[in-house]
Amino acid sequence: MFRNQTNTKGKLTIAPGLFMITLSSIALGAAFGGYLPLISLWLETLGISFQKIGLVSGMAALGIVSSAYFAPQLVARYGNIPVINIGLCLAAVMMVALRFTESMTLWLSIRFIGGLGLGLHWVLTEAWLARIASNQGRTRVMAIYATAIGLGFAAGPGIIWLFGFETITPFLVIAILPLIGALPIYALRKHEPEITFAAGGSPLLLIRKAPTVAMACIVAGGVDLALITLMPVIVARTPDASSMLILSIVPAMAIGNVVLQYPIALLADRYGLRKVGMIIATIGLALCSLIPFFLHSALLAMILAFLGAGLVYGLYSIGLAMLSKRFSGGEIIAANAGFVIIFELSNLVGPAFAGILLDIDMQLGLPIFLVSVGIFYLLVSWLRRNANPD
């Protein structure tokens, strides 16, 4: 259990855990938001295909998956905060190392190791949040967390605006962000959680007990990274696209994430997690699938990106809220590890699969990918409509 995180009535106590984790998540969000388009644009200058760009970007997913399995043993031996912060330092080093090679094998290896470091922060801080939130405030806590990441995402691409993407400088600047994110976690050392781990972090636990939550992971994970990674390259390769979209399309998505998360959480608390999840998935994926057809208009493309990505990302916080309602005690750590594993496997497969379709048809490839994922999610959610809807 966690010490000093809930009061006797079980209501949410937001300090210090939620506040410090939120600060750390803003820094990590900025690192993600800047680094993913940075490596995509840099790889584009080297003439790398969509498929390979998607694979390199998604390879960090395997490292994060591995972290979900290693986290219990590492925490049991060294404690939460040392494990989280060492992971962030490792990720910072790998962000810079990527720029010093043009070997596909080394790119994949570096991305794997960096993902391993980032995953330790992800698994352990989300499990921490799940335990400090009351039933009444859980969806809103997860929305605050998702909003913090989105806020960082919105700021991250600004580094590319300032420093470009062809030199070492933006890589160095972005690598500082995980180190900044380690500071709020270190400040929690007197409030370090005591965690009892359930056996295994297998994704099968989540798939078996909560398939709709697993599908929310797949949609949010596969679509989110595919859009962030590949949209700047799509813009760069589309002759009549507005040039300003190369660096503005990802911030538009991130700002949508920031603005829409809390309203989505309020709607989910009122009308039900499953119902709201199906609605935002349908509308969000439909809007995102229209983006490639409106790249000639920066305003229209950014509106579609703002609304579409913001709605789709809402599935992440809804999925976390559903997870923390379905699981309790030590089992929630295993379930959250499964959540991260599925999300990251989707991060790996989504951009790579979307990249294959884009290499076949640059305008229709992404819409086909998005519609296919959306149909799968809606089918699973509809079949499970009478099974513990919240």
Key traits:
390 residues, Growth Hormone, Chain: A, 15 helices, globular, disordered N terminus
Summary of the model, kept short:
The protein has helices spanning 17-45, 50-58, 60-78, 80-97, 104-132, 138-155, 158-163, 169-186, 203-209, 211-237, 245-271, 273-290, 298-326, 331-360, 365-383.
Folded structure, characterized:
It is a single chain. The protein is mainly alpha-helical and 390 residues long. It has a single domain, classed as MFS general substrate transporter like domains (Growth Hormone, Chain: A), CATH 1.20.1250.20. The protein has 15 helices and no strands. Helix 10 runs antiparallel to helix 13, helix 12 packs antiparallel against helix 13 and helix 14 packs antiparallel against helix 15. The longest helix is centred in the C-terminal third of the chain and has 30 residues. 59% of the residues are buried. The N terminus is likely disordered.
Total count of strands: 0
> Portion of residues in helices?
over 70%
* Large-scale geometry: globular
Order of helices and strands: HHHHHHHHHHHHHHH
Give the topology, please.
Elements: H1 17-45, H2 50-58, H3 60-78, H4 80-97, H5 104-132, H6 138-155, H7 158-163, H8 169-186, H9 203-209, H10 211-237, H11 245-271, H12 273-290, H13 298-326, H14 331-360, H15 365-383
Helix pairs in contact: 1-6, 1-8, 1-10, 2-5, 2-10, 2-14, 3-4, 3-5, 3-14, 4-5, 4-8, 5-14, 6-11, 6-13, 9-10, 9-14, 10-11, 10-13, 10-14, 10-15, 11-12, 11-13, 12-13, 12-15, 14-15
